[in-house]
User: Fold this.
Amino acid sequence: MPLHLDKIPTLRELYTRGVLKPAKVAPRHAPRAALLDRVSLFQGDITTLDIDCIVNAANRSLLGGGGVDGAIHAAAGPSLLEECRKLNGCETGDAKITGGHDLPARHIIHTVGPIYSSYKKEEKAEQLASCYKTSLQLVVASSLKHVAFPSVSTGIYGYPIKDATHIALNVARGYLDTPEGDKLDRTIFVVWSDADKLVYESLLPHYFPSEDEGDTV
Ligand code: AR6
Assistant:
């Protein structure tokens, strides 16, 4: 069943319901009321979202795989693979856009996250940040208004969920604070497991504090 944008709860709704609670320590960013209506957390299948654009956690071939990539190709149908064949792959940290094919979403941005290694933490962190930043830039450059991200690299590619979530939220907050970011109406973080949902719920208030939170660090 396609899920329309107005059924996806915003951070404001999640604060009101008590799902999100103010951070216990001073948040990293100043509260910005407008962002509470423009960011969402959603638990479920990203392929059901009836929005402008969803992001795929792909591999460098862009020719499909397991995890969310497999789910997106299965739901979008074989014509997505045909379009992907023409893209000549994608570098780690970069992103390329296709149509949504049989998905309710109009477009798919395929980004390639790093395969995690604790020996190259900084390089991996830069590559993962680049996935989010490049994808957000591509959304705006394509005049799209909404985007949904899965938790890139944290499944088969093994990136620790807490570190990856800090990177995702930091890049998104930084981008949404720019004039380009102002063009985005909704950025949705999609989680699959309960454990990942808890991580997002605990970290979101540090990057997107509710209006009545105090000083930042
Ligand atoms: N909707 C939302 N999130 C999902 C879905 C879904 N339908 N299915 C899985 N997830 P992963 P990666 C979550 O492994 O780590 C593929 O083979 C999942 O629980 O899909 O970047 C590619 O071709 C996890 O939180 O992506 C690459 O080879 C998150 O999506 C490789 O896996 C990402 O997990 C990429 O690995």
